[in-house]
Design goal:
4 helices, mainly alpha
């Protein structure tokens, strides 16, 4: 026996067949499921995060090579929230991304160390 749905929650079903747990608008559907709000969703996606202080600072801190990794993880997080992918898939992506970050960080540190050692050798030769 299925429990009676709350009128405050979206009445749509997610791709996995479970009920959406987002708060519903007056249409009975949430922002993500209401087809009448597609333009609003698109505008929100376009505007989201532009020029926010945290986003700008993060963009300056993240090496350019890692930006696509961050973007993919952010996309996976949204897909998990919307029920489009299994959380285990996102967890695997996060694990792989963590390994990539460690490898890239290690390589960057190695390069910095080589440059410092080279400068030190130049000073010792002079």
């Amino acid at each position: 026996m299925e429990a009676k749905a709350s009128p405050l929650l979206c009445r749509a079903k997610r791709k996995d067949g479970s009920r959406c747990r987002a708060v519903a608008t007056t249409s009975g559907l949430c922002l993500a499921h209401d087809p009448m709000l597609e333009a609003k969703r698109q505008a929100a996606r376009s505007a989201g995060g532009h020029n926010k202080a945290k986003s700008v600072r993060l963009g300056k801190l993240v090496p350019p090579r890692l930006v696509p990794v961050f973007d993919r993880l952010e996309q996976a997080m949204q897909q998990v929230h919307q029920g489009e992918i299994d959380p285990r898939v996102a967890q695997a992506l996060a694990s792989l991304a963590g390994a990539m970050v460690r490898v890239l960080t290690s390589g960057e540190l190695e390069e910095r160390l080589r440059r410092l050692e080279s400068k030190l050798e130049e000073r010792n030769v002079q």
